[in-house]
Amino acid sequence: MKLFNPGGVQGSAMSYAALLEKIEILRSTLRWATSLQRNDIEKLLRQANALRDEVMQLSHRERFVQAVSAGPALALPAGERRQALLARSFVFEGTFGDNPRLLDALEIAEKAAPTDLPVLVDGESGTGKELMAKVIHANGARADKPYISVNCGAIPDNLLESELFGHKKGAFTGAVNDRKGKFESAHRGTIFLDEIGELPLIGQVKLLRVLQSHEIQRVGSDETIAVDARIVAATNKNLRRLIEQGTFREDLFYRLSVIHVTLPPLRERQDEIPMLIAYFSDEAAEALKRRPVKLSPRLRDFLLAYDYPGNIRELRNMMYRISCLAGDIADVGHLPEDIRPAPAGARGGADAAKVESVRGQGAQVPAHLEAPLSLGEAKRVASDQAERVCLERGLQEVGGTVAELARRWDMNRSHLQLLLKKHGLHSKDFRHQAGAGAGRAVTAPD
Ligand SMILES: Nc1ncnc2c1ncn2[C@@H]1O[C@H](COP(=O)(O)OP(=O)(O)OP(=O)(O)O)[C@@H](O)[C@H]1O
Ligand SMILES: [Mg+2]
């Protein structure tokens, strides 16, 4: 009897062509069978169930894609997209920023949250994958049910099955009691499978089985237990590459990635860095019970131009470190030693001379002279500096009255406030200063 692989979508992307081929195999098996034994019938039934499951997933995915592309939000400017999410009572769980790619991800999360479709979140380390999993949980119907996080890379191979599915007393040495696994604990809630790329192949097979049957068996028990857990998985690996290398199952990848969200690295959403600096500076000040730290121009330039291999986590940690170590004003000396820029005097050549000459005039050293920048970064830093200078001048002229400045510039007042926050400027610092030079140190917002 010719049978297709009962694993379901094994070895092929889920597509109508692949499904039709499997249905044809099933049909011809039935057409040419002269008699069927009970075990053959059961095999065929399992295949029919697997096919039904795949069709359901495909149709969910299509409906989801249609819903996303039909959404009017994509046409809106970033600020309005965030406002629109807020207006729809979206729970951000502390996710900050309005970079268009982050908003894309949040809008996908918003659409995916109320469904039970599996979501795969990928992105470099520290880009907010776990935060995104919490956002999906918090915005769905399971928000008041358990959210269980499992780090697939941290479980020793011999404990994997017991961790995920639990065990029966006496199942192995050390199993002194019956124990629930993570899947059972996540029943009716969400299970977050972190570092899914680290799951060994044997664990992948077992996980696949649970995804297909929605049932588990505790180690050492024959009893099957129904589990209803919404799956969100995350990885900082390129799973397609792992599939090519044979260390990740393609069928599991398709099962997990019905909705696929990729979080961009911070260096690709540099427009968010000023706001994130202000946000984490406030957060750190509150946690450390101190006034928000002020940043020297040199430190601020460094923070704006640095490429953050550890992404948002690195920036957040850096702001906590700076806030902890610095007095009123933080400088590059408060950065971790391994990333601290060399003192300008240690640099040779034309740049060092320019740096010294600019400093000699008491002016702010442009970041592109402090550290080598790409053309794009240099442009962004320059435009950011121009924006800041313009805001400072404007505030001086109106003696720090934001409403007046908004009127003069014919600008929305809240947008102007947002720009001031982005640059860490305080209108009160400009009161009684009309005509005088504004202070140079940047104040984190309070
Ligand atoms: N958009 C954001 N706004 C505010 N905080 C964020 C944002 N993204 C991430 N963070 C914070 O950055 C830190 C790292 O985020 P998270 O743990 O979700 O990253 P991750 O992608 O899961 O990292 P890893 O791959 O190393 O596990 C957390 O403290 C999180 O709260
Ligand atoms: Mg994580």
UniProtKB/TrEMBL annotation:
Pfam families to which the protein is assigned, alphabetical: AAA_lid_14 (PF25601), Sigma54_activat (PF00158)
Domain Sigma-54 factor interaction stretches: 95-324
Any GO BP annotation: regulation of DNA-templated transcription
SUPFAM superfamilies: Homeodomain-like, P-loop containing nucleoside triphosphate hydrolases
Matching InterPro entries: AAA+_ATPase (IPR003593), AAA_lid_NorR (IPR058031), Homeodomain-like_sf (IPR009057), P-loop_NTPase (IPR027417), Sigma_54_int (IPR002078), Sigma_54_int_dom_ATP-bd_1 (IPR025662), Sigma_54_int_dom_CS (IPR025944)
UniProt feature coiled coil, ranges: 34-61
GO MF term list: ATP binding
Superkingdom of origin: Bacteria
Protein name listed in UniProt: Transcriptional regulator
Organism name: Massilia psychrophila
Keywords: ATP-binding, Coiled coil, Nucleotide-binding, Transcription, Transcription regulation
PANTHER family, sorted: TRANSCRIPTIONAL REGULATORY PROTEIN
